Amino acid sequence: MRHIRFGAAATAALLALSLAACGDDNDGGSGSGGSAEDSFDIAFIPGVANDAYYGSVACGIQAVAAKSGSTVDVQAPKSFSPTDQIPILQAVIAKKPDVIIIAPTDSKALYAPLRQATSQGIKVVLVDTTLEDPSLAEAQVSSDNIEAGKVAAAKLVELLGGKSGSVLTVNLSAGVTTTDDREKGFAEGIKAASGLKYLGQQFSNNSVQTAASIVSATLAANADLTGIFSTAAFNTEGAVAALKSANAASKVTIVGFNANPPGVQQIEDGTVAAQVVLKPYDEGIAAAEQAVNALTGKPVTKEISTGAVVATKDNLQSPEVRKYLYSFDCPKA
Q1: N or C: which end of the chain has fewer CB within 10 A?
Q2: Where does the Periplasmic binding protein domain start and stop, copy by copy (predicted)?
């Protein structure tokens, strides 16, 4: 039998129910198809609790674990920060799982505790985010965030339709590899567009209120602000609130990076013109597959990159977009 245990908050409990249901569908009530010697204790530490993106990653991990009857124990920090994530990681290490699949919340701060894990013989696989020095990991699985940032820039330029003006990026915090790369790709793409002035990035430090303040101040200082790129859900929420407060929503186009239910709602109600959608379920599958390969002595692919699509009101109901919208409900086998 598979046992799925979740730390942090009520939504994580809902995810546990979803994963348990998926497990029942996968094995049809007769156990997994794997052998006992291929059954492992897998710990998954996402970047933050209550985020459907990581719910989709967890579903992918469970889909692979179900094939061998492996356990999946998810422990999520309450905020996307090393301060909250490191104590959880240390508690997980003390349980001595066979492998830890983790989305590091800081490219430097998580290195030492993860080195502690590998020194005790625990395998490590990085998913979504990575480390400045990822050599300790068996594999790293992530989206191509630089390319996704370029896709966001191209979409914003298309949506602006030749309008001139200033463009701002609201980012999370420095040192998060995924969002750093998104801004890097976006900056490259937007600087190549004619008629647009790139104001660079400002950091919200994971705060909706700070993101709103950044956008409000930028509006006050730049009357020609015409576009905002948000690298994550916190920033988008703050940007939407600031534009609404300033009665500027019709003048400034937002391209975000969030296919969680609130992000989908932002597309539907028109407060966000487009959302870049990654493929977290595919990430979870790839991470778990490489973890099992490492544990069973099979060849491991050290780096795996997954793609992205762009969701707008026009294509939101299309199958190729809907299948990648983030959710705690695992796809049925």
Answers
A1: N
A2: 42-298
